[in-house]
Backbone:
């Protein structure tokens, strides 16, 4: 927002960090979005990065840390701050102080998981009315040299102009998914929840080749969205994604969404390569849906009635693309099919 000022202070000799650039990008995006939301009336967002050495005494006081060289990233805001009674809960999944519909409570849990998986740790300082500072410490290799970006993306995972509808309520992740797909040859329609997703699907149903939906969304969740899609388009290609357990023996949402004919799942967090591979696999696979006892697609005769009568069928203007569809690759990615995959994801 224009009311927020952004300052950056990065050391010129930062050490090398070994890890997934995609996930690091997700960490910083999540923290920056939280900082923005904490400054509704404006303020200052400061991003810094510097080399530091964690000694044994400091490591002994910080759970999960190890002595040695680290790079410290700090995301600080001058916003509303976090109440002291909430500080020990902010990394718990689904904990949020935002109003209903504004957050899932998974952003900071994702940050914590990613940082810990890379051998790092997080420090938080906050004062109500003064602002919040998150410091991310990641193990570094002072003597290492940066590698040239690999130019080995497989042409088989790239898009060929297909339109993908993405329903995802996590704003940073939504932005990363869109950039990744567009940079790899796909067109993208973005929806913030199932209601918006269904509206876009009805408008562009003849052009949409795949639907990628989060399972846990406010108002109209992924399961309700898939159920509605199956009624209007029983053979729609669908990939489901979630931060909750979607393994085959998990039951719950996995069982419900699988019963609706969805067989491809993305477990968060995931790499860009996995997203692109699964999207390509889903688009290339034969379309299929759920089948009713009478052998008709959709699992219920009523689906045909809804399809033909209750649901309006708007005309699609093929010559006028949606304003949210961007065919040009983002993030300065090359048009060359061998271009490296851009960042993503949680």
Residues:
């Amino acid at each position: 927002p224009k009311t927020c000022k952004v300052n950056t202070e990065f050391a010129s000799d930062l050490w090398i960090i070994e890890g997934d650039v995609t996930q690091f990008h997700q960490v910083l995006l999540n923290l920056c979005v939280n900082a923005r939301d904490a400054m509704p009336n404006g303020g200052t967002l400061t991003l810094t990065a510097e080399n530091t050495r964690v000694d044994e005494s400091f490591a002994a006081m910080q759970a999960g840390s190890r002595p040695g060289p680290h790079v410290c990233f700090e995301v600080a805001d001058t916003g509303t701050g976090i109440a002291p009674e909430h500080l020990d809960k902010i990394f718990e999944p689904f904990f949020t102080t935002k109003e209903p519909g504004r957050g899932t409570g998974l952003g900071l849990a994702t940050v914590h998981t990613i940082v810990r998986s890379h051998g790092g740790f997080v420090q938080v300082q906050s004062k109500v009315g003064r602002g919040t500072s998150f410091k991310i410490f990641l193990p570094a290799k002072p003597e290492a040299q940066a590698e040239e970006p690999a130019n080995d993306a497989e042409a088989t995972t790239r898009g060929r102009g297909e339109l993908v509808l993405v329903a995802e309520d996590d704003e940073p992740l939504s932005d990363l998914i869109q950039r990744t797909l567009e940079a790899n040859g796909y067109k993208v329609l973005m929806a913030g929840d199932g209601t918006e997703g269904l509206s876009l699907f009805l408008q562009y149903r003849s052009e949409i080749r795949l639907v990628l939906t989060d399972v846990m969304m406010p108002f109209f969740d992924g399961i309700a969205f898939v159920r509605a899609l199956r009624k209007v388009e029983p053979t729609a290609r669908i990939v489901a994604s979630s931060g909750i357990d979607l393994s085959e023996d998990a039951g719950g949402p996995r069982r419900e969404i699988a019963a609706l004919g969805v067989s491809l799942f993305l477990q968060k967090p995931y790499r860009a390569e996995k997203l692109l591979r699964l999207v390509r696999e889903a688009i290339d696979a034969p379309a299929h849906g759920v089948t009713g006892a009478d052998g008709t697609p959709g699992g219920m005769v009523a689906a045909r009635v809804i399809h033909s009568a209750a649901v309006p069928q708007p005309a699609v203007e093929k010559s006028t693309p949606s304003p949210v569809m961007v065919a040009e690759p983002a993030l300065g990615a090359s048009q060359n099919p061998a271009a490296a995959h851009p960042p993503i994801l949680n």
